[in-house]
Specification:
The protein is of the alpha/beta class. 38% of the residues lie in helices and 21% in strands. It is an enzyme of class 1 (oxidoreductase).
């Protein structure tokens, strides 16, 4: 068991009170981390405020070089970082390696975007005036990150914030703080000035977040997590008119039309559902399959998921790890039992037998799911495929949109006209057309409706950390 320190204002800080980090695969304590309270969070804010102006005035190329150096160090330590992630979060080691690569891509992308923050000149309606648009950093920012992507959700926020010239305080999940602290050490080694980045974690998120929300000097909050918490933070942000960007819950439909490449659809269905054990906001939840191909698709997907090996992510050949904690298992079990009690048929999984330790739940498939079952309208966050059938395009679009969420949607068809119709009609921020893995650093990630506000990644991502200033310059003599 390793003991960690908090990273506050460029210093590594101990505290007598600690909390345990649990390996969800073995239920063993793998680390102890100082249990931060409001005092530590205030110190992080003060440090960020002290250096904000200096960091904002650093030339873009210098900020970019630090991001690139951090990316280089992360790449060199991929195995170490992936192992830490698997230990604290549970995902298989190969998948953890993939996330480290994904996390690195945000640092590399925003290192380039730092040098492309452009202003504008606007034609004036007066001969003796000129109009300019300038962009400046928002100021001190904070990131509240989840446990399911303990590296990528941090760099997706750190990257644009630092590139724009903002200081940042990261409050990672208390379930997975180790990746965040390791990333902090990498930025320290990369030459990031003291105070620009702090990582503060503790077991009372509401107490820590209160400091950030009440301090007027913290100008922006970026949060990834549940819709309910996002709503709470939005109310709190109103008191100081903070800028916010939220990536919240989802309930993604996965639609398969009869003209789809069935093998390709099955392959992507397995990816969209089982990545991260189904514990992702963009995980496919409702599988709408046209009745003409329902049986064939179901048989192929059942065969595909049955072949997946469940176990400790550090072991060879494991493709499905544990869920994050007992309450996650309990929710999945509740959704499965509710569906079965209301008439759904269990085709695969559904039983936790064979696992004496660890928070495991096997890949599970339910057929004959209907709209009144919890799994068809609540986010399951687990490895359960809920299959529903449909007959017409209009019908399935209506059903897919019939949710308060609007993060991601997937559909498979070879009809070009249908691709464009659905891209326009589906009420989601991310659309995967014949693609179950659309996330990438250069594309705007985010949702509509109750799935959030703002975008992360892409050229739009850095705009979330910039204020627009309008300069009207008068007194220009015209001869």
């Amino acid at each position: 068991m390793k003991k960690y320190q908090l990273f506050i204002g460029g210093e590594w800080v101990d505290k007598k009170e600690t909390f345990d980090v649990i390996n969800p695969a073995t239920e063993e304590i793998i680390a102890q981390v100082p249990n931060a309270a409001q005092e530590e969070m205030r110190l992080a804010v003060e440090a960020a405020v002290r250096v904000q102006t200096e960091w904002a005035d650093t030339v873009a190329s210098e900020r970019a070089n630090i991001l690139l150096e951090a990316a280089k160090l992360m790449r060199a330590r991929t195995e170490e970082l992936a192992r830490i992630m698997t230990l604290e979060e549970g995902k298989p080691l190969d998948e953890a390696r993939g996330e480290i690569g994904y996390a690195i891509s945000f640092l590399e992308w925003f290192a380039e975007e730092a040098k492309r923050v452009y202003g504008d000149t606007i034609p004036s309606n007066s001969k003796d005036k000129r109009i300019f648009v300038l962009k400046r950093p928002v100021g001190v920012t904070a990131a509240i990150t989840p446990w399911n992507f303990p590296a990528a959700m941090i760099t997706r926020k750190i990257g644009p914030a630092l590139a724009a010239g903002c200081t940042m305080i990261v409050k990672p999940s208390e379930l997975t703080p180790l990746s965040a602290l390791k990333i902090a050490s990498i930025f320290e080694e990369a030459g990031l000035p003291k105070g620009v980045l702090s990582v503060v974690s503790g077991t009372d998120p509401a107490e820590l977040t209160q400091v950030l929300m009440e301090d007027t000097r913290v100008r922006k909050i970026s949060f990834t997590g549940s819709t309910n918490v996002g709503k709470l933070l939005m109310r709190q942000a109103a008191d100081t008119m903070k800028r916010v960007s939220f990536e919240l819950g989802g309930h993604a439909p996965f639609i398969v039309f009869p003209d789809a490449d069935l093998d390709e659809a099955v392959s992507h269905a397995a990816l969209a559902k089982m990545r991260g054990m189904g514990e992702t906001c963009v995980a496919a939840n409702r599988f709408y399959v046209h009745q003409d191909i329902l049986q064939e698709f179901t048989e192929k997907l059942t065969e595909r998921l049955h072949a997946m090996k469940v176990g400790n992510g550090l072991e060879e050949g494991i493709t499905v790890g544990p869920l994050i904690e007992p309450s996650a298992v309990q929710k999945v079990e509740e959704h499965v039992q509710d569906a079965i009690s209301k008439g759904a048929k269990l085709l695969l999984g559904g039983e936790r037998e064979g696992f004496e330790t660890g928070f495991y739940y096997p890949p599970t498939i339910l057929e004959g799911v209907t709209e009144e079952m919890k799994i068809s309208y609540e986010e399951t966050f687990g490895p359960v495929v809920a299959i529903l059938s449909f007959e017409t395009e209009d019908e399935v679009v209506h059903k897919a949109n019939d949710t308060r969420y609007g993060l991601a949607a997937y559909f498979f068809t070879r009809d070009v006209g249908r691709i464009f119709r659905l891209a326009e009609r589906l009420e989601f921020g991310i659309i995967g057309a014949n693609d179950g893995m659309p996330s990438t650093a250069q594309a705007p990630f985010g949702g509509v409706k109750e799935s959030g506000l703002g975008r992360e990644g892409s050229k739009y991502g850095i705009e979330e950390y910039l204020d627009i200033k309008y300069l009207s310059l008068g007194g220009i003599s015209v001869k």
